[in-house]
Amino acid sequence: QVQLVESGGGSVQAGGSLRLSCAASGYSYGAYRMAWFRQSPGKDREGVAAINTDSNKSYADSVKGRFTISRDNAKNTLYLQMSSLKPEDTGMYYCAADSTWTQYPLNRDRYGYWGQGTQVTVSS
After folding, report:
1. Residue 87: φ, ψ to 5°
2. Long-range contact list for 44-48, CB < 8 A, 24+ apart?
3. 51, 79 in Cβ contact below 8 A?
4. Which H/E stretch holds residue 77?
5. pLDDT 10s digit of each residue in the chain, 124 long?
6. Between the chain's N and C termini, which has fewer beta carbons within 10 Å?
7. Are 94 and 25 in contact (CB under 8 A)?
8. How far, in Å, are 33, 49, 61, 124 from residue 65 at the CA level?
Protein backbone atom coordinates (compact mmCIF):
# COMPACT_ATOMS: atom_id res chain seq x y z
CA GLN A 1 0.00 0.00 0.00
CA VAL A 2 1.46 3.32 -1.09
CA GLN A 3 1.76 5.81 1.73
CA LEU A 4 2.99 9.40 1.47
CA VAL A 5 3.47 11.55 4.56
CA GLU A 6 4.38 15.23 4.27
CA SER A 7 6.07 17.34 6.92
CA GLY A 8 7.90 20.63 7.28
CA GLY A 9 5.10 23.10 6.74
CA GLY A 10 4.59 26.11 8.95
CA SER A 11 4.27 29.88 9.11
CA VAL A 12 6.97 32.17 7.80
CA GLN A 13 7.33 35.80 6.82
CA ALA A 14 7.72 36.85 3.22
CA GLY A 15 11.28 36.36 2.04
CA GLY A 16 11.81 33.40 4.35
CA SER A 17 12.49 29.74 3.60
CA LEU A 18 11.02 26.36 4.40
CA ARG A 19 11.89 22.79 3.45
CA LEU A 20 9.12 20.28 2.97
CA SER A 21 9.68 16.53 3.17
CA CYS A 22 7.60 13.61 1.96
CA ALA A 23 8.33 10.17 3.37
CA ALA A 24 7.21 7.38 1.05
CA SER A 25 6.55 3.74 1.80
CA GLY A 26 4.78 0.70 0.44
CA TYR A 27 6.23 0.69 -3.08
CA SER A 28 9.44 0.84 -5.08
CA TYR A 29 10.13 4.52 -4.51
CA GLY A 30 12.88 4.85 -7.08
CA ALA A 31 10.57 3.69 -9.87
CA TYR A 32 7.99 6.42 -9.33
CA ARG A 33 7.72 9.96 -10.60
CA MET A 34 7.18 12.34 -7.67
CA ALA A 35 5.77 15.84 -7.41
CA TRP A 36 4.59 18.63 -5.16
CA PHE A 37 1.24 20.31 -5.62
CA ARG A 38 -0.43 23.10 -3.68
CA GLN A 39 -3.94 24.30 -3.16
CA SER A 40 -5.24 27.57 -1.76
CA PRO A 41 -8.83 28.14 -0.63
CA GLY A 42 -11.09 28.61 -3.62
CA LYS A 43 -8.43 27.60 -6.12
CA ASP A 44 -7.63 24.44 -8.01
CA ARG A 45 -4.76 22.22 -6.96
CA GLU A 46 -1.75 23.25 -9.03
CA GLY A 47 1.52 21.56 -9.82
CA VAL A 48 4.55 23.22 -8.23
CA ALA A 49 7.45 20.91 -9.07
CA ALA A 50 8.01 17.37 -10.31
CA ILE A 51 10.97 15.03 -10.52
CA ASN A 52 11.23 11.92 -12.68
CA THR A 53 13.01 8.68 -11.92
CA ASP A 54 16.03 9.99 -13.87
CA SER A 55 15.95 13.16 -11.72
CA ASN A 56 14.73 15.31 -14.59
CA LYS A 57 12.86 18.22 -12.98
CA SER A 58 9.93 20.44 -13.94
CA TYR A 59 8.78 23.63 -12.24
CA ALA A 60 5.80 25.93 -12.41
CA ASP A 61 6.79 29.33 -13.77
CA SER A 62 5.69 30.98 -10.54
CA VAL A 63 8.34 29.14 -8.48
CA LYS A 64 11.27 28.87 -10.89
CA GLY A 65 14.46 30.14 -9.31
CA ARG A 66 12.94 30.03 -5.81
CA PHE A 67 11.98 26.39 -5.23
CA THR A 68 14.10 23.27 -5.66
CA ILE A 69 12.75 19.73 -5.76
CA SER A 70 14.98 16.79 -4.93
CA ARG A 71 14.71 13.14 -4.00
CA ASP A 72 16.77 10.77 -1.91
CA ASN A 73 16.04 7.28 -3.16
CA ALA A 74 18.07 5.69 -0.35
CA LYS A 75 15.79 7.34 2.20
CA ASN A 76 12.57 7.09 0.16
CA THR A 77 12.10 10.80 0.70
CA LEU A 78 11.10 13.71 -1.49
CA TYR A 79 12.02 17.30 -0.65
CA LEU A 80 10.96 20.78 -1.65
CA GLN A 81 13.30 23.58 -0.67
CA MET A 82 11.38 26.86 -0.80
CA SER A 83 13.18 30.19 -0.67
CA SER A 84 12.16 33.85 -1.14
CA LEU A 85 8.66 32.89 -0.13
CA LYS A 86 5.77 35.16 -1.06
CA PRO A 87 2.27 35.46 0.42
CA GLU A 88 0.91 33.92 -2.78
CA ASP A 89 2.83 30.73 -1.97
CA THR A 90 0.43 30.15 0.92
CA GLY A 91 -1.55 26.92 0.68
CA MET A 92 -1.74 23.25 1.49
CA TYR A 93 1.17 21.42 -0.09
CA TYR A 94 0.70 17.84 -1.22
CA CYS A 95 3.15 15.16 -2.22
CA ALA A 96 2.13 12.93 -5.14
CA ALA A 97 3.49 9.83 -6.84
CA ASP A 98 2.86 7.80 -9.97
CA SER A 99 4.59 5.01 -11.87
CA THR A 100 3.48 5.89 -15.41
CA TRP A 101 5.25 8.09 -17.95
CA THR A 102 3.70 11.43 -18.89
CA GLN A 103 4.49 14.51 -20.92
CA TYR A 104 2.66 16.56 -18.29
CA PRO A 105 4.36 15.97 -14.94
CA LEU A 106 2.67 19.01 -13.35
CA ASN A 107 -0.83 17.86 -14.25
CA ARG A 108 -2.65 16.60 -11.16
CA ASP A 109 -4.59 14.04 -13.20
CA ARG A 110 -1.31 12.21 -13.88
CA TYR A 111 -0.90 11.11 -10.27
CA GLY A 112 -2.58 8.22 -8.56
CA TYR A 113 -1.19 8.54 -5.05
CA TRP A 114 -1.40 11.50 -2.72
CA GLY A 115 -0.38 12.47 0.78
CA GLN A 116 -2.57 14.30 3.28
CA GLY A 117 -0.80 17.62 2.90
CA THR A 118 1.13 20.10 5.02
CA GLN A 119 0.12 23.74 5.44
CA VAL A 120 2.40 26.59 4.42
CA THR A 121 1.47 30.13 5.42
CA VAL A 122 3.49 33.12 4.26
CA SER A 123 2.70 36.48 5.83
CA SER A 124 3.58 39.86 4.37
Report:
1. -55, -30
2. 45/94, 45/108, 46/106, 46/108, 47/105, 47/106, 47/107, 47/108, 48/80, 48/93, 48/106
3. no
4. strand 77-82
5. 889 999 999 999 999 999 999 999 988 877 899 999 999 989 999 999 999 998 999 999 999 999 999 999 999 999 999 999 999 999 999 999 999 989 999 999 999 999 999 999 999 9
6. N
7. no
8. 21, 12, 9, 20
